[in-house]
Amino acid sequence: VEASIPEPLREAWRKYSAHEFTNKDEFERELVRHIETTLARSLYNCDDLAAYSGTALAFRDRLIIEWNRTQQRQTFTDQKRVYYLSLEFLMGRALDNAMLNVGMKDAAREGLQDLGFRIEDVIGQEHDAALGNGGLGRLAACFLDSLATLNYPAWGYGLRYRYGIFKQEIVNGYQMEVPDYWLDNNPWEFPRHDITVDIQFYGHVKKKQDENGKLVASWVEGEVVQAVAYDVPIPGYGTKTTNNLRLWSSKASSGEFDFQKFNAGDYESAVADQQTAETISAVLYPNDNLERGKELRLKQQYFWCAASLYDIVRRFKKTKRAWSEFPDQVAIQLNDTHPTLAIVEMQRILIDIEGLEWDEAWTIVTKTFGYTNHTVLPEALEKWSVPLMQNLLPRHLQIIYDINLYFLQSVEKQFPNNREILSRVSIIEESHPKMVRMAYIAIIGSHKVNGVAELHSDLLKSTLFKDFVDIYGVDRFTNVTNGVTPRRWLHQANPALSSLIAEKLGGHEFLTDLTLLDKLEAFVDDKDFRRQWAHIKSDNKLRLAKLIKDTTGYKVNPESLFDIQVKRIHEYKRQQLNIFGVIHRYLKIKGMSAEERKKVVPRVSVFGGKAAPGYWMAKTIIHLINKVAAVVNNDSDVGDLLKVIFIEDYNVSKAEIICPASDISEHISTAGTEGSGTSNMKFVLNGGLIIGTCDGANIEITREIGDQNIFLFGNLAEDVEDLRHRHFYGDFQLDPALEKVFKAIKDNMFGDAGDFSALTASIEEHGDYYLVSDDFHSYVTTHEMVDEAFLNKEEWLAKSITSVARMGFFSTDRVINEYADSIWNVEPLAVKD
Ligand code: H53
């Protein structure tokens, strides 16, 4: 391509091609230019928001120049690329991250100051890009950061929701949901109106003979909706690589159809079609770890998979390679089962459109895909009803039946006369209605399946996917323990700690090789270092205390022990255990003499997180937390000894303030239920200790930092089944301390007890599925150990520093390299400066 362009033309382009600003003055010039021309503002009417927009546009220009170069480089070298398919990308704010990743934050700070602005105020204007629910979506965002930082040729594919996760408001203690319209004023996306794909739904399948007499299926009629690409540049840290996140937006298929209706005077119906089409990408489903089987959700999934695959295949076909080389050029990773239809769509493209034979096509498919499972919770596992699929995607259902047929035939050969295994592993569940088990398609259609922490991956192999281990052998199943990006979760969220570490280690290299943190251990006993470390923690606590004051009105004492649990509200994550523990503490304080109270370690219990709008029990937990807060925080007997805070609308940008401010944080899921957890890593990386169960990545965190640096409690995963079984047969005794807590609730201490009866009854009467009572004693006594430990400031600091020093394993850079080596077989692209 390059050689076909004549030199004079190239020369002219080179001469005028855009340049990046490289210092403060050039930045200021770009900023003022954008404010005066792009935004049509001036010195006299430029507020913080306009300054934000101008700064973002200036940085966007920089990113897009590098984006172009990166894409050219990747096209010319023509090596294998990774495509990460995820329905969620919980990106948070982009500006601060862009400034830090391109290394121009100081220049921007000074430039903005020259022009009369404070950088913090400017950064604070940005609306979070909240296209995700929780851990799964945030992991995808951390992966994008690491993929770019490590120079992997990689694209993310997702949906451009008009409404991201709802904004949470707390009204009289209840969660209310407010739509999150985030697209006004979003400078980070590039609409590509020229990149569109027509996506078909409904219709029916016709079989006809091709010119060679072969019977081929074709999917005809139905509706067509158009997918339009929007690109978001993803800058790596300290590299020229800027990767792409492509988000699809839906609109009515352009074409005569609408015009015909329009011209026939049927204006309303033409507009209605438009609106129906736009509904597909209108809203993110606000459930985390919970699937509801709604038709629109299935439409979203197919729309996004089909558009992304069309794009990937189009790019591959430009190389004019043989189809057999597809898996050498393309690796596609499925983030959970949400994109499983991509497997079926790929097979459809190969056999129905490209004319390959079934086996040849299927070999290509399985070599291309990898599947990550993030949960063992039954309510999160996707199943789609056969009638629904038949109606929406008739050809795909046929292909699924064929995949199942060939698969079951091979299983039958391997395990003759074993009907049970056939029915257990069949993609089709023989229920009423029949259901398609998406995880099974994902396993059968991929060459590798991974879990996200060791315990989780072991559980997959020994329980959920055991039969598939027997069928395929254990090598198809692997573990890649999650991580977080140290750029956002240390450098950006905690700049003071990042600088202190850099000062000690002689530079910021640890941000791209987190294992270098181990050098910090040499300074554990350094008095001066400890003092600085402690000082940074108190500043971060002050910053959180300010957020708490500004958002809730409550004043908290920053000297108190800050005990934080922020994550989606879910019974398995057990915020109920936490708030019952808080009530227990409150009752204890109330029963103390003045003398005894002097010995109490003052605490602030901080909660935050959203409940799925239809998840009644989770909403009840939020309600209880807020009612307890209202009583405890206004009780003059208690004063600063205990404060309870619910932070409204927990999101990524609030997490950046919250994570650096914990003394202790809570990761207390019932053993065996949390896939990995990733906020546990963020808190420890910022020098907070944790209290947790032996679950998810807590186990590997313990292995890395040492069990003397973590507060573990509760029953083990291996005991859970037996305990549940015993509860089921009536062998259940409510923990005596928990009984007192329930009595306080039932005596209306926190308002009308009726509001909370479902919550207490689920434990007392309905089998305590999440083992709250079984773990309660261990939980409260472990919290007493936390209090005790907090009194010894020096030892606490030593634990904090040692833990950070040993967190090197939990960077998504390590995670991405593991995926690249063991699943994708891709190499980073060499990038010259
Ligand atoms: O994925 C995180 C894990 C976490 C797990 C979470 C998750 C979702 O957020 C949504 C659906 C799902 O299946 C799993 O709950 O334990 O850390 C990233 O792997």
Automatic annotation (TrEMBL):
* CC cofactor: pyridoxal 5'-phosphate
Gene3D superfamilies in the record? Glycogen Phosphorylase B (3.40.50.2000)
Which Gene Ontology cellular component terms are annotated? cytoplasm
N6-(pyridoxal phosphate)lysine-modified residues are K682
Keyword Heme: yes or no? no
What is known about what this protein does?
A: Allosteric enzyme that catalyzes the rate-limiting step in glycogen catabolism, the phosphorolytic cleavage of glycogen to produce glucose-1-phosphate, and plays a central role in maintaining cellular and organismal glucose homeostasis.
Family recorded in the similarity comment: Belongs to the glycogen phosphorylase family.
Which keywords does the record carry?
A: Allosteric enzyme, Carbohydrate metabolism, Glycosyltransferase, Pyridoxal phosphate, Transferase
Q: What Enzyme Commission number does this protein have?
A: 2.4.1.1
Q: Matching InterPro entries, A to Z?
A: Glycg_phsphrylas, Glyco_trans_35
Q: Which PANTHER family match?
A: GLYCOGEN PHOSPHORYLASE (PTHR11468), GLYCOGEN PHOSPHORYLASE, LIVER FORM (PTHR11468:SF3)
Q: Name one GO biological process term.
A: glycogen catabolic process
Q: Which organism is it from?
A: Penicillium cosmopolitanum
Query: What's the protein called, per UniProt?
Result: Alpha-1,4 glucan phosphorylase
Leading EC class: transferase
- The answer to keyword Glycosyltransferase applying to this record is yes
| Listed Pfam families | Phosphorylase
**Gene Ontology MF term list:** glycogen phosphorylase activity; pyridoxal phosphate binding
Instruction: Write down the chemical reaction(s) this protein catalyses.
Output: [(1->4)-alpha-D-glucosyl](n) + phosphate = [(1->4)-alpha-D-glucosyl](n-1) + alpha-D-glucose 1-phosphate
